[in-house]
Each structure stands twice: as C-alpha cells, then as structure tokens.
Amino acid sequence: MRFLSYIESDPAQPWGPPPPELFEAIGAFGEEMVKLGVIVDQGGLADIATSPHIRLAGGKITVTDGPFSEAKEVIGGYGMYDVRSREEAIEYSRRFMQVHLDTWPEFEGTSVVRQVFGPNAESDVVGEA
C-alpha cells in the first residue's frame, strides 16, 4: 500500500527559517527509510510564490504565475511510503514530525497521511469492508 504524507504549515511562520540541523536529520531519516525499503520518494517543495497555479473553473483553464493572495497553509514537503498498513504510514509520519520537534522545536504544522491509488499502488481501500 502506498501513502503520501505531507506537512502543512503557516507560510507566515513566526518561528523563522528552518535550522541546518533539521535538514541533516531529515537526510538521516530518509536514509533509514531507504534501508527499510519503505520510502518511494521524499522532498521539500518550492515556495508557493514561485509555483504556478493551473485552475479549472467555469469551463475554462487558466494558468497564473503569481503573485498569489496570502495562503493560510502551504504544503512544504512530502514523503511517499510503500508500507503494509495505514498504521505503519502513520508511524513513519509521526517519526518525521518528531525529527522536526527534536531539531526545530518552534515549528508548528500538521502531517497529513493519504492513501494513494493507481497502477503503482495497491487498490485496497483502507477502512472499507
């Protein structure tokens, strides 16, 4: 089963830029996940201000390069896990948040864990009988 885990946080973060120790700890966490064979991909995402938006509304597709109105939350990074269960994906995501707490205690955010469906992922829906 594949799960996408991503972190949402306030882009107007009052706690300042991430410390170098966070990136070192994320690298070590990623190496551990590779050794365990559970990480498919992981990474940080570019600033929302530099990311184009493609919108479908009213039967039209528009592309906007920005600037954008202030967002309340942005997705700053992600991890794609290939695991045996939802609980296992939750545990790896919890551990990733622990990396943040240990190296950047001022940070506040939410890790969201979502099951992925498609040709490269199991199609069983967690929680359905």
UniProtKB/TrEMBL annotation:
Domain YCII-related intervals: 17-95
Pfam families reported for this sequence: YCII (PF03795)
Assigned protein family: Belongs to the YciI family.
Protein name: YCII-related domain-containing protein
The organism of origin for this protein: Aeromicrobium panaciterrae
Biological classification of the source: Bacteria, Bacillati, Actinomycetota, Actinomycetes, Propionibacteriales
